[in-house]
Amino acid sequence: MIEVMIQREKRTDAGGERFVPRSIVIEGHAGYADPGYDLVCAGVSAITLGIANAIVSLTGTDAVERIGKSGYLHFALPEHLDPIVEEKVILLLEAMLVALQAMAQEHGAYIQVNDSLEKS
């Protein structure tokens, strides 16, 4: 099973209180099908690597902390970003999470999303 673990940080600004993704770890293999034919793994890879590339291309920031073997990918919101760049990175990370949560709704036996602070 693929596990997505999200740690959020509470932020308060002019817009009010919100919880932004501070760290996102994706790890494991879906086991939906044999390697090379696993559409759930392929979908997760496409979503996560597409967002990783989009963050670099659109913001000039690398939010990938670590890529490892066995389907391990760790995103971390970098410290001390320009506020405008930070908002773009947060938006792209949230977009990735929306796509991963949609996959989990369709394929819950193969991917699980655990959010440290559920948004209300």
UniProtKB/TrEMBL annotation:
Pfam families: Peptidase_Prp. Keywords: Hydrolase, Protease, Ribonucleoprotein, Ribosomal protein, Ribosome biogenesis, Thiol protease. GO terms for molecular function: cysteine-type peptidase activity. It comes from the Bacteria. GO terms for biological process: proteolysis; ribosome biogenesis. One of its GO terms (cellular component) is ribosome. Gene3D superfamilies: Cysteine protease Prp (3.30.70.1490). The keyword Ribosomal protein applies. Belongs to the Prp family. This is Ribosomal processing cysteine protease Prp. It comes from Candidatus Carbonibacillus altaicus. The lineage of its organism: Bacteria, Bacillati, Bacillota, Bacilli, Bacillales.
